[in-house]
């Protein structure tokens, strides 16, 4: 497996590599806890001389069980796969989480899906991962079944930072509070979102701050405010990194409209409309404010830009490691 390969429910069984090791989980955000599981799978794969894959589910099971509850995802499916591709894994198995999957018993999942269809020879999993109907499948069940199945199972404990467990939920809370440093520490790299540049009201251009406008998912709970950002711009096989300052919010000085991410790139001139950018959040600068005059807003934007440049200069290499999908 020379390229990162994505295996889905529709992939013919003849095209699925047999005898792999899998790191199993939902992997929203691919944070430090997830990376411990991935590292265990990679080590197991090296020891056995086998490829290591991620095994994950789409949509997120919470979306299936609570379709009307807003779900702030740290990474959509494509972003998650690109993060996984940057870890050294050989590929990913993406299982569709639907009614049939939700009603599959834990034993059936092990014997039919993991062993029968995928032919796995090793599994790495986090201590709190559950699977199967009613979530009765657990790491302890995998350990119990391992000798009979002839496979190796590695269960990773929780990962703590400053005596606080790392979790996707904790990262969501940190982002909602504007605690970018805390989120970055738990993720192991800056949180990023990919997004297409769309046309806006062109106000930034009139203010001397032309912006690339990106609409985030409606459920994005990132705190409204001003951020230092680093942007990845894909150009064929190459990627340029551009520094900037961004506002995420409703623009209370003007219209208090729907939330929009507006990115001003330092020392850049060009047309980005229709391009997809990767925006990494390096630091929080301030909350979103309403200004009494355009002059006051511009003075604040000048100050925001200085603060953003300082934060970015202090973290010159900060950017998530993203791989290419096959």
Characteristic key phrases:
31% helix, alpha/beta, 10 helices, 326 residues, six-stranded parallel β-sheet, single chain
Instruction: Please state roughly what percent of the residues sit in beta strands, choosing from under 5%, 5-15%, 15-25%, 25-35%, 35-45% or over 45%.
Output: 25-35%
Structural class: alpha/beta
- Beta strands, count: 14
What's the average pLDDT?
95
User: Radius of gyration from the CA trace?
Assistant: 22 Å
Secondary-structure element order, as H and E?
EEHEHHEHHEHEEEHHEHEEEEEH
Number of helical stretches of at least 4 residues: 10
Biggest beta sheet summary = 6 strands, parallel
Helix content: 25-40%
Based on CA inertia axes, which overall geometry fits?
elongated
Distance between the termini: 10 Å
- Low-pLDDT regions: none
Strand order, largest beta sheet: 1-4-3-2-5-6
Q: What does this protein look like?
A:
- By secondary structure, the protein is α/β, with parallel strands linked by helices.
- The protein has 10 helices and 14 strands.
- It has a 6-stranded parallel β-sheet with strand order 1-4-3-2-5-6, with helices on both faces. A 6-stranded antiparallel barrel has the order 9-10-13-12-11-14. The chain has a two-stranded antiparallel ribbon with strand order 7-8.
- α7 packs antiparallel against α8.
């Amino acid at each position: 497996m020379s390229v990162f390969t994505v295996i889905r429910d529709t992939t013919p069984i003849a095209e699925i590599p047999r005898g792999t090791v899998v790191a199993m989980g939902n992997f929203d955000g691919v944070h430090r806890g997830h990376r411990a599981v991935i590292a265990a799978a990679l080590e197991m794969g090296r020891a056995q001389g086998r490829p290591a894959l991620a095994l994950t589910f789409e949509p997120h099971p919470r979306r299936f069980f609570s379709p009307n509850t807003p779900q702030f995802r740290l990474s959509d499916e494509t972003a998650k796969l690109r993060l996984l591709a940057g870890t050294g894994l050989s590929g990913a198995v993406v299982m569709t989480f639907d009614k049939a999957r939700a009603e599959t018993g834990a034993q059936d999942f092990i014997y039919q899906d993991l062993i029968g269809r995928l032919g796995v020879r090793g599994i790495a999993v986090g201590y709190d991962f559950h699977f199967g109907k009613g979530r009765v499948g657990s790491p302890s069940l995998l350990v119990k079944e391992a000798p009979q199945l002839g496979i190796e199972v590695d269960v990773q404990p929780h990962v703590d930072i400053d005596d606080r467990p790392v979790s996707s939920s904790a990262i969501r809370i940190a982002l909602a509070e504007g605690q970018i440093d805390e989120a970055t520490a738990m993720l192991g790299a800056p949180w990023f979102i990919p997004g297409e540049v769309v046309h806006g009201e062109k106000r930034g251009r009139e203010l001397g701050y032309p912006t690339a406008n990106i609409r985030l998912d409606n459920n994005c709970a990132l705190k409204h405010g001003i951020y230092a950002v680093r942007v990845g711009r894909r150009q064929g096989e190459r990627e340029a990194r551009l520094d900037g300052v961004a506002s995420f919010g409703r623009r209370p000085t003007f219209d208090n409209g729907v939330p929009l991410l507006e990115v001003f790139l330092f020392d850049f001139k060009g047309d980005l409309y229709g391009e997809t950018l990767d925006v990494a959040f390096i630091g929080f600068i301030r909350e979103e404010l309403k200004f009494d005059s355009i002059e006051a807003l511009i003075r604040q934007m000048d100050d925001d830009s200085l603060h953003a440049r300082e934060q970015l200069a202090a973290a010159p290499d900060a950017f998530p490691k993203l791989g290419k999908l096959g």
